[in-house]
Amino acid sequence: MKNYGFMKLGMVAALSVMLVACKSADKPVEKAAPAATPPAAAAKPAAPAGGLSAAEIAKRDAALAKTKFYFEFDKSDLSQEDRDALVYHAAQLKANPNMHIRLEGHADERGTREYNLALGERRSKSVSSYLQVQGVAASQMENISYGEERPADPGKTEAAYSKNRRVEMIKK
Amino acid sequence: MIMNKIKLLLAAAALLVAQAVSSQQLVIQITKGVDNPIPIAIVPFEWTGFGVLPENITSVVTNDLHNSGEFAPIPEKNMLGTPHQEKDVYFKDWRFLGSDYLLIGKISKSADSALIQVQYELFDVVGQKRMVGEVISGTEKQLRDISHQISDVVYEKILHVRGAFATKILYITSQRLSPTVTHYQLNLADADGGRAQVLLDSKEPIMSPTWSPDASQIAYVSFESGRSQIYIQNLSTGAREQLTNFQNSSNSGPSWSPDGTKMAMVLSKDGNQDIFVMNLRSRKLDKITTSFAIDTEPSWMPGGKSLLYTSDQGGTFRPQIYQVSLETNWSERVTFDGTYNAKASMLPDGKNIVLIHRAEASDDHVSIMNLERGTISALTDTSLDESPTVAPNARMVMYSSKEGDHSVLNAVSINGRIKYKLPVKEGDVREPAWSPFLD
Predict the structure, then answer these.
(1) What domains can you pick out in chain B, each with its CATH number?
(2) What pLDDT sits at residue A30?
(3) Are B268 and A114 in contact (CB < 8 Å)?
């Protein structure tokens, strides 16, 4: 948990650099590319130079494997767990400026279809905004909403609804 | 250019299925009629030609009147005679049966014409007089149209309200074939669900079908390009056009202005969903709302000078109805009761709006709001209601709701007294859009 805290501090530091870069250059991501090593490495001077421990690699891979982000009813806030995973996605996107993602937002079936289309978009944008704050270029991300048109689970239960309120990240 | 050609080819492919007859026939089931429906005798029309006609006019008219919930047709087996012309009508027979009205007719075809003549006459049994009668000609294919026209005349003569049987509906059906494959279809049918046709078949969602005011064109949202875009389709030629092409934006919620020259829509190209109005001739876009909240579901007020829309600018995830003037772009909040008010449309009387209303901890119901009194009353007791659409004579509201695991179409009269549903055999049916009058 302690390491984790350090890592976050490291992220904030890296982020400040990025934001400064943003103000002074048109293409912040490319300029900041050297800083785009995985955040955990930068925050941990004790780690072998340029390398990650097995545990850190496992943690990173688990975070990168998470591409579906779920939301509470009538909410577009990201959970802490999702924010943590998105930090790793951000690092990967910054390290690979040619990588693009499509963020597909969805809603459950309650409420009107067009409002739900907007709600899915709001969720998609809460993911892209978070990634942007982490330094990912807006041009690497595409927002789209399917509203309630493509449920993951067609059921009518709260369990089904909670699977449908989601953003799916598709890397291209 | 190549992309354009591919798009055109895709459009052509989509249209190939446009004439396919839908397997998703809807059948009306009355769930609640008026307490004292008007008894009417509809004598089977006499056919004097050869062969069998493709449509049974008598049964289409009987079903129309019965399904309106306002009429109680007398069973044929109880009839004491089967007159087809005025001189054979004995009013006392029909009074004896308790029938207030009598509809008779005959169908003929002369050897040298492709057209069929349908003659009908309506009588007031109590007043013992002929109310109306005429001859309508048409092809075999138009027999159903002629039937609905007769129903419209009977409805108007007796209830003094224009009938809306000879109108159409658009609706969306979907069938989930597997967790990753769903079939979406845009359908066109008679208002009673008859003669259903598929206009567009896609593996990507289709949403928000709507009519031009002259009923010659429709607009809808399709995801076929990988993102929601608005399309316009001409119903007689089948010609199709993509109206919007904003990337990294939702393009949705099309709504034609009453004069047909503009299209209100929802675009998020500037960051969040706002209402825009496009001039359909110049394609110039005017941004109407600028809130940082969700603004969606625009719907024109009868005069075309302002729009109703749904927005959560007053509280996130608590959408309410607003009205925006197109002259000043000034918005005023319309609804205050309930935690969720959305998808409003104004009735032709300019005084009442139909909307989806959710009271605290309640389900979503099609409701009617009187603007002068500010009161909202639910018209339905179905579950998860959405997409209300008002018949052009403003007597019925059609909408979709959830029943079991599926969505079905329902209708409710504007006074809540009549209810019917139009279920589909399999899959989901939703987002009905009732056409304007077709003449």
Answers:
(1) 29-159 (3.40.50.10070), 168-434 (2.120.10.30)
(2) 38
(3) no
